[in-house]
Amino acid sequence: MRPGSEVSVTELAAWVSSRVPTTHRYVLGIAGPPAAGKSTLSQHLAAAINREHAIAAEIAPMDGFHKTSAELDAVGARHRKGQPDTFDVSRFVARLKLLREAPLGEPVPWPIYDRELHDPVPDKIAFSAQRLAVVEGNYLLLDQPGWAEVRSQLDEVWFLDADGSIIEQRLTDRHLLGGKTAEQAKAKIADSDMPNAHLIVGTRGRADVVLSETSGNYFVSEVR
Q1: Is residue 170 part of a domain?
Q2: What is d(CA 6, CA 212) in angstroms, rounded to the nearest whole number?
Q3: For residue 52, what are the domain limits?
Q4: Which element (helix H / strand E) includes 60?
Q5: Tens place of pLDDT per residue across the chain (224 aa)
Q6: Residue 77 falls within a domain, yes or no?
């Protein structure tokens, strides 16, 4: 990848596949603000690597490490769900370390976040023979207590950037689909989502590669 170039998912898959060892698992992080398209990129990338390079790949979403609604209610923090302190970062780091160090073939369970339940579901995914784990999440590059330990567990991190207006529209659609009223969605975006997005954008300087989506492909703005 070269700065200033536009690449397809197929080309991104080839780039990653050339870096995956045969003896142990490669852990690729995809960071970025909420609604930047991290999940879509992760899914398409893993599918292309599985299909075109015969390398078993699976997605390990950071969102599975949300604290439960009950835990957040107990400290009056449910309205701030999605902010850094509403995640169990120590458990996330411990599981990342296990994902990175476990021998291929040894099962490593991984949780997901269920948007219908609005809560994490433990051990929904199982890693075993997968040589590539794509870890996607907002705070992979955050340099704060607890979160600062994440970067050392990732072999490489891409930052997926997006224009603020695109993020706001996607977040609005997501919240409305999730059952919020237009007013509730607007408040959530203003009070939590966009401040989070600004915080996350400030971490892009720690990424190995910075991308942005463009007409189905990806523009490479930085490679370090």
Answers
A1: yes
A2: 9
A3: 6-63+130-223
A4: strand 57-61
A5: 788 899 999 999 999 999 999 999 999 999 999 889 999 999 999 999 999 999 999 999 999 999 999 999 999 988 888 889 999 999 999 999 999 999 999 999 999 999 888 899 999 999 999 999 999 999 999 999 999 999 999 999 999 999 888 888 888 888 888 888 988 888 888 888 888 889 999 999 999 999 999 988 999 999 98
A6: no
